[in-house]
Amino acid sequence: MIYWHLFLAFFIPGILGYGGGPASIPLVEHEVVGNYEWMTTQEFSEVVAIGNSLPGPIATKMAGYIGYTEAGVLGSIVAMFASVAPSLLLMIGMMAILLKYKDEPEVKNLTKIIRPVIAILLGFMTIQFGQESVEGIGPGYTLFLMVASFVLLEKVKLHPAFVIALALVFGAITGL
Amino acid sequence: MVERQEEKNASERPARVLYQNIGLAFFRTGMLGFGGGPSSIPLVHQEVVKNYGWMTDDEFGDTIALANTLPGPIATKIAGYVGYRVAGIRGCLIALAASVIPTVLLMIVFLGLLQTYKDIPWVQHMSASVVPVVAVMLGVLTWDFIKKSGETLGWMRAIFIIVLAGILIEGLQIHPAVVILGCILIVFSPLLTRRKKP
Fold first, then answer.
1. Where are the domains of chain A?
2. Does the distance separating the beta carbons of B183 and A22 come in below 8 Å?
3. How far is it, in rounded angstroms, from Cα B183 to Cα A124?
4. Among B60, B62, B61, which residue's Cα sits nearest to residue B52?
5. Which of B76, B159, B36, B142 has the alpha carbon at shortest distance from A92?
6. What SS3 class is residue B50?
7. Is B19:B49 a contact under the CB 8 Å cutoff?
């Protein structure tokens, strides 16, 4: 049963997340935190944070890790398979058809139309993570970390992995 | 130059070397591509077109364009497809494993450590301090998606879809998958009706 749930939880984001792995983050969150309640928002944010700090595709990293924590190695394989296989099989199987239709306006429009939907999903997730943070560590400290990380990420153009590492070190020191 | 020529003839050399090369190529792109799959595309181009010559620039461009029209993670789609083109199903599996497994293992190690010590107060505070940073990263990603939507659809239409999707998903609690499926159906409906007429 757990394997079937894992499959579904990562199949749906894999088949509907237009715009690559990052676009599927809110869809995965919807299943993992909202639907199956395998993780809290806090735990999920750790997965996104570490996932963003490590190299490699983000969607499969999340699938592999969450599958592993829920149902061991087999769970990990099931979740990764569910997130990768459907779209890959479509690509290999339908290459000829896709090549024929790739210039049709409908096919070109698909990503364009779905992008704003993903945008609002990401927006809701941002608000949810902000709220979670305010409840967990208080509004002042949250605001400070948000402003600091925004400046470091967008103005100083520091690599996200460094920003996460800095936040971890800073949080550990202030938590002592 | 001689070495590059040798690499170009990779497909005529023993299969084992080819499998090794596929593994190496996608291991490198997986381990060096920070920031998720889409940011690793230039690295994949480097390996597939320049380094091993498995595809021409045009073929690679087509592959990217097609991968973009399909849903799901982009890096693995490309890895799997290139692996399949170069060395069949085994090539596909090797490329996928090489690009995915090493980083998943790292993930399990790092988060496992965090989970083991999560009851220590300063570790708790440490992981709680990451939440606002992730919120900022998601906020930046949100803005990227909004900006791109406005640029490709025009701001009026983009904002209309954003607000409508927001009401459906958050207000009426409709599953996001249903909303996206609805979009797909609406986009494809003119194509279907057009094809019915001979």
1. 2-102
2. no
3. 19
4. B60
5. B76
6. helix
7. no
- Best of A69, A91, A142 to substitute, by most chain B Cβ atoms within 10 angstroms, is A91
B153 contacts on A by Cβ (under 8 Å): 112-113, 115-116
Among candidates A30, A76, A136 on the partner chain, residue whose Cβ is nearest the Cβ of B131: A136
Tell me what ipTM this predicted complex has: 0.81
Which of A17-26, A33-42, A96-105, B45-54 has the least mean pLDDT? A96-105
Per-residue model confidence as pLDDT tens digits over A103-141: 777 777 777 888 888 888 889 888 988 988 898 889 999
A57 contacts B37? CB cut-off 8 A: yes
Structure tokens at B136: 């900022």
User: Which residue in A45, A152, A173 has the most chain B C-beta atoms within 10 A of its own C-beta, making it the best mutation to test that interface?
Assistant: A45
**Is the CB of residue A98 less than 8 Å from the CB of residue B69?**
yes
With a CB cutoff of 8 Å and minimum separation 6, the contacts of A9 are A28, A31, A32, A35, A36, A66, A79, A82
- Residues of chain A neighbouring B59 (CB-CB closer than 8 A): none
Token pair of B151 as six digits: 């640029």
What does the alpha-carbon distance between residue B131 and residue A48 come to, in Å, rounded to a whole number?
9
- Are A122 and B134 in contact by the 8 Å Cβ rule? The answer is no
Query: Sign of dihedral through CA atoms B187, B79, A49, B104?
Result: positive
Instruction: List CB contacts (< 8 A) between B152 and chain A.
Output: 112, 115
DSSP string, A19-32: TSGGGGHHHHHIII
B135: which chain A residues are within 8 Å (Cβ-Cβ)? 45, 126, 129-130, 133, 146
Which is nearest to B150 in space by CA: B158, B162, B161? B158
Say how far apart CA A33 and CA B149 lie, in whole Å. Answer: 27
Q: What is the pTM of this model?
A: 0.79
For chain B, how many residues are written? 198
